[in-house]
Amino acid sequence: MRRRRSPVLRTCGRARPPEHGAGHGRAAAGVWVGDGPVNPLDLLSNHTYSMTLIGSVVVGAVAGALGVFTYVRRESLIADVVAHASLPGALGAFIVAGLLGLDGRSLPVILLGASLSGVLAVGLTRAIVSISPLSPDVSMAVSLSLFFGAGMMGLDAIASRGVAHSAGLSGLLLGNAATLTVLDVATLCVVGCLVLVVLSLLLKEFTLLSFDPQGARLAGLPVRALSVCLLGSIVVATVIGVKTVGLVLMVSLVVAPAAIARQFARSVRSMVMLAGALGAAVSGLGVYVSIGVWQLPTGPVIVVILSLLALVSVVVKR
């Protein structure tokens, strides 16, 4: 009897990674999808799929957990500002790293530049609100447009001038999860764990600060330091997925799990835990669907599943 061929094709013991920027997170070369869904256990033996799965699950857990505080503070749009504003920072970090002889496309470099740019965008938004009659929503729109426009100009300039090793930078817009390397996944795990540890240690303080800032001040808490810490955690939780989901869709991964968890959770703690679990689970499901069932972009699949679940949860709890 002939043995059935495994649906996972290997090249020298590991799947060949896709070209940078190709497919916006589609299944990598070396993963073969036959006439039906692929057995998840077969896919787990594939290097590219494993990296995509681990990275996406970590991003989903961190974004979902921290997204609760953008939701309860009614600042969900701030995640959109941070995500779009991260583009010029990531490009700037790429250029500086290239001048220093480093790999500008590595995730640690991208996260550093994107985080700095996101913090600057939030700072500009708050400055506009404090010195002008513009509403917070309008101020966020101004900051988002300014930073994202600058980022698109920079992206075009880099592409037109043929800067060395710039292939794949356009993948930051919609993500390209299939290009995650071992270094990228290790970076996501370390950064994600640090953010979750900070969240677990300061959960009570963050909760009081979000619902009653004046009460937190009267209780003797360092409100300014806590605000900076919470803002920094939200920024990192948002930019952490630029290479996995993409900055255009990242806001959905931050907001949707919190919106779903709000329909069922009775406390902020349970809301954080449920949102983090939902983000991780749906990200894992989205990776499998995009690679093992249909060859589709990973980021959009994750976002579509989350959005559908959010709509269903709202209808069910009406």
UniProtKB/TrEMBL annotation:
Transmembrane segments: 49-69, 81-102, 108-129, 141-160, 180-203, 272-291, 297-316
Cellular component per GO, a single term: ATP-binding cassette (ABC) transporter complex
Keyword Cell membrane: yes
Pfam families per UniProt: ABC-3 (PF00950)
Keyword field contains Nucleus: no
Keywords, in A-Z order: Cell membrane, Membrane, Transmembrane, Transmembrane helix, Transport
A GO BP annotation: transmembrane transport
Entry membrane topology: Multi-pass membrane protein
Gene3D superfamilies: ABC transporter involved in vitamin B12 uptake, BtuC
Span list, region Disordered: 1-24
Subcellular location, record wording: Cell membrane
Family: Belongs to the ABC-3 integral membrane protein family.
Name of the molecule in the record: Metal ABC transporter permease
